[in-house]
Amino acid sequence: MNKNLLYTALLTALLTVLAPARAQQKLPTTTLSVGIHLIHAEVAISDAERAQGLMFREKMGPNEGMVFRFNTTNQVCMWMKNTLLPLSVAFIDEAGNITNIEEMEPQTLDAHCANKPARYALEMNRGWFKKKNIKAGSKISGLPK
User: Fold this and answer.
1) CATH code (residue 96)
2) Does residue 17 lie within any of the structural domains?
3) If exposure means fewest CB atoms within 10 Å of the residue's CB, which of 11, 30, 41, 120 is most exposed?
4) Is residue 1 part of a domain?
C-alpha cells in the first residue's frame, strides 16, 4: 500500500472515530403542552446541560425543542454560540406563563433576555410559536420541577 493511500485510510478512520465526539448526546425528554399543541422537549437542568444546549445540532423535528430549567427565578439570557439552527426562545415564569418570545440567529453571541424574571426557557425551531399563535401570556404545562 502506498504512503498516500495509507495516510488517507488512517485519516478517514480517525475522523470516523472522532466525529461522534462533536455530536451531542440527546438529553432525557418530557412532553409539554401549550393549548392543543404537544412539544417533545429535551430537558437541560445542570449547568453543563444548559451550557451545551442545542449546540452543533443540524436538525430538530417540527414539534421538538429543549426546555432549560434554571435553579432560581431570575433575569436570564440565551445566546447561539455554536448553534447551527435558527431558533425561537420563549421565556417562562415560575407559574408556566410565557413572558416573552425572542427570535435568534444561528451562530451569534447576541444576548436574548427575558423581559421579566424567568424560571424556564423553551427553544423551538424559529417561527414555531408564531405558526401556532402562541404568544406572551400563553401557559406551558408539564414543565420539569
Assistant:
1) 2.60.120.1140
2) no
3) 11
4) no
pLDDT band at 9 (very low <50, low <70, confident <90, very high): very low
- String of b and e for 52-81 (b: at least 16 CB within 10 Å)? bbbeebeebeebbbbbbbbeebeebebbbe
Positive/negative CA dihedral, 49, 67, 38, 65: negative
Contacts of 97 (CB under 8 A, 6+ apart): 137, 138, 139, 140
The number of folded domains in the chain is 1
**pLDDT over threshold 50, residue 56:** yes
- Which position has the grid cell 404568544? 135
Domain that holds residue 31: 25-131
Decide if 9 is inside a domain. no
Instruction: Round to whole Å and give the CA distance between 17 and 2.
Output: 23
**For the whole model, what pTM was predicted?**
0.84
Evaluate whether residue 13 is within a structural domain: no
